[in-house]
Every structure is written in C-alpha cells, then in structure tokens.
Amino acid sequence: MSGRRSDPVIRVEELVKEFGGRRVLHGITFHVRRGEIFGLLGPNGAGKTTTMRILLGLLRPTSGRALVFGRSLSEDSTLRRRVGVVLEEDGLFARLSVHENLDFYAMVYGLSDKEERERRIREVLECVGLYDVKDRVVGHLSRGMRRRLALARALVHEPEVLFLDEPMSGLDPEMRVAMRELLIRLSRRERVTILYTSHDLGEVEKTCSRVAVLMGGRIVAQGSLSDMLKEAHKPLVELTFATDEDATRALGRLRSLECVLECRRAGRKVYLVTDWDTHDILRELVRLGVRVEEVRKARRTLEETYLRLVKGGGSR
Amino acid sequence: MIGVVVWKELRETVRDRSALSSGLSVLLLLALLNVASLRHAAINVGHFIFYVTPCIGLMTAFGMSGRFTREKRERVIETLLATPLTLRELWLGKVVGLTIPSYAITLAAALTLMYVRSCAMNSAIAIYLFLVIPALIASAVGLLGLLQYALGMRQVQALNYAVFFTLFVLLFVTVRTLAMDGDPLAWEVLSALLIISVLLLGVAAHLVSRLDKERVVTTVD
C-alpha cells in the first residue's frame, strides 16, 4: 500500500474541470480517511458525478489533483483492483444471468481461482439477498434488485475503497436500511473507505460520518455531520414588530451586532440566528425604542441548513 | 483479460435473439440468392464465393458491432472502464468475441453453398475462407467499434445508415457479377485483401490505444 496508514485514502486538491470552456468544478478540495464514509451532497448538476468520474480516471481534470492511495487511477490501472464502483447506471449486462455478471467482473478484477470466485459470489449475493435469483437473467430483474446486484458487483473483489454514486436509488425502505447497515459494517469492521454521493440528505445523514456540500461546482460546506447538526440546532428567533418602521429600524441595529450570525426580514417579522441569549437581544431592541409584539424560538432542521447552504444562505 | 471479454461477448451472443435472427436472415438471403442464380445457366461459383461470402461476413459483422454502441448508450462502458480493463483490452476482446460468431455464420453459409453447388475445395478457396474472410470481418468489426467508441450517438446513427446503404449497394453489384467468367480467387488478390484487412485492423488497434476515455464517456448524449 502506498503512503502511511494515516494518509488520506482519497485526496482531491483544487480540482477544476471545464467542458468546452464551461467550468463545472471550481477548485474543490477534500480528503477521505481510511474507513470513513464521506458523503458528497448536493442537488443535481452540482458536480458530484463529475468529481467521482475524475477520481475514477474516466475524465481528465483541467487542473488540480484527484488521487486514490496517492496516485491517479487514470495513470495506474492496477490500482483499480483495489476499488469498487457503483455508478448512476448499474453497469450490468442485461442478457447475462446474475451469476454470470458477477463471474465476469470477478475475473476482470483478478479473481482467477474458480473456487475462490464462487465463494465470493455466494457471499456477496447472500449479503444483498439475491442468492435465490442467481440464475435469473439480469434484464428480468426489478430496478431495486439490479441496484443490489450492482453493489454486490462492487464488493465481489473485496475492495479497499468504494465509490458509490446514488447507490440507494430505486431501493425499497427495507433494503435501504439493510444496505446502509452493510456499508457502515464495511467501514467499521473492514475499514473500507467509502465515497458516497447523494442528493438525499436523510440518507447521507444516516450513513456518512463527514460530508461536503457541493453547489454549482463549489464546496459550500464541509465537515462532520455533528458540526452541521450543531449549526442546524442553533435557535432561530422569530421577532414580530408592531410596525414596518419598527422592523426596519430593528433590522438595521441587529445587522450591526457581532453576535447576530444571520438575519433576514419578511414584512413585520425578522428572523435571526444568534449566539446571544434572546433576553439580551430583546434588551437591545427595547433600548432602541422599537415595539416587539411577539417572540418565538424555533430550531432549524438539518434539511433547512442544507437548503440554506445550496441556495446561497441567508444574508446578514 | 481479453479472454474474459471474449467469453462474455460469446455468452451475450448466444442469448441475443436479435443476433441469432440476423444470422438466420443472412442465411435466408443466401438461399434466395442461390435460387435466383439458378436461372443463370453459366453461374460462376468462384465469383459467388469471392463476392457473396464477404458480403455475408460484413453484414453479420455490422449487425454484431451494434454491441459497442449498446454498452456505450446504456453507460455500461463507464463501469467497465473503471475496472482494471484498459480501453484497448476491452475493444480487442469485443472484436474477437464478435468476429467469432460473425465468421461462424459466414463460413457455414459459404460451406453450405459449396456443398449445394458441388464445388470442390482448393487451396485458394481454403486461404480465402480460412484466412482472408476472418481478417476482413475482424477489421470491419474493429473499425466499426473504434468509430462507435469515438463518435457521438447521432454520428453513430448516421454512420450506421451509411454502412447499411453501402452494403446494400455492394450486394446489388455483387449479384450482377455472378455470371461473369474468370477466376477472381487469384493469389495476388487474396494477398492484397489479407494485407489490407490486417493493416486496417492494426490501424484501428493503434487508434483505440490513443483514444481518450473522456471522449468515450462524454460522447454518449
């Protein structure tokens, strides 16, 4: 294995990608450590799949680096034996059976011993609950079953790194739970490093330990989910003023305060996120001479925090 | 690695009903040509083998080469290129895997024709059927595969129309030559055909090794 054990397994540095002069990635940087499940979160067209394709060596970066085990997969095809992939499309051969598909990919990934191959195929098919349909032609499987088979294919050669692009799409809730448990087990017990892209916040929240939120080819937030949850759980204060004039004056004063992290107005209402106690804020407003009719405290959900990030955030 | 791809292609061909039906169509076409040519008293079997056999080979090769586009359109190619397989290995495996059934159909058709016409096998026919024809089919599959990898889907569609039209014209011209005199299976002609086929295959292999994965991946839409 190249590099020290503490080195990040996946390293993306100042990655830029342009298609015909149109920039789709604007210098993104992140890294994923061994055994970590890292989520790339963002709406459609944010650049998640492009990032993954560059990491897999399918696209060339315009500038910057995308490395796995310290090297580029486009330059070292043998390194790809240590990587498992589930892309948006399943990448399965519709005319071959479940077993034949896995057998083909197992051989491609270097499992030359037939007995070893059969053992692995049995293991992964049991793991994803498809062993009973191993002789069925893939074209006759449901979307969810094909997705599970794609995951089985990605695992058949016991990879050290998994690249999963929207892996849960098409799965029923029961299967989602099972797949999620499988991924978490792989990362914890086998120390498999997983890069996971999704636009489903709930799924990422339940699966990933760290995330980067991508928007328009830029990372707008990055860190552990617990940090994002802390941010999400800062109280949102809703102040209703007696008149529009009061609201305008209060907004001007609140925006000048260091302790007010976020502040926006809708009619006579002003919404703010603050580090201060609400009583201190109210005292400040009373001192200003504005009349507050109502004060309400709310908590933002993680989803609201995510939407705020991808929509450019609330302004101070 | 290449053997694994060949094995997969052969399996897919066996399961592919459209490939089997196109093979049967070619055999049916051959039977019709044979019946039609019975009207000509002085039919030249040498001409029949020389002109019709490559037509059958090229038609089946054209039909089979659609597999390159299908994998690209269904984005299976992205998963394949993310494996340790290189683009060249994948291309070569497919060329061999698609040439084998195309050649099998062509050879079966040619041998059946020879049997029906009571045509004896000689060294020129043997070289033609066992060396030149497979090389010709492989070069056709290879070139079509290369173009299908490199071109966008609309361009591939235009290419398919162009190839289909060319094959149709070729077959039409071929039928008109069946009653002509002379032996087309001269050693110089056989050598030239073999060299051209091998050269074309070599050029295609070289171009595939220079083909960028990004080009293959981004010409799907």
Structural class of chain A: alpha/beta
Describe the oligomeric state of these chains in a short phrase: heterodimer
Q: Calculate the terminal CA-CA distance of chain A, rounded to whole Å.
A: 48 Å
Note the run of SSEs of chain A as H and E. Answer: EEEHEEHHHEHEHEEHEHEEHEH
Low-confidence stretches of chain B: none
Q: What is the helical fraction of chain A, as a range of percent?
A: 25-40%
Would you identify the regions of chain A where 5 or more consecutive residues have pLDDT less than 50?
none
Overall geometric form of chain A: elongated
Summarize model confidence as the mean pLDDT of chain B: 85
**Biggest sheet of chain B: strands, sense, closure?**
none
What's the tally of helices of chain B? Answer: 9
What structural class do you assign from the helix and strand content of chain B?
Answer: mainly alpha
Rounded to an integer, what's the Rg of chain B over CA atoms? Answer: 18 Å
Count the strands of chain B? 0
Order of helices and strands of chain B: HHHHHHHHH
Mean pLDDT of chain A: 87
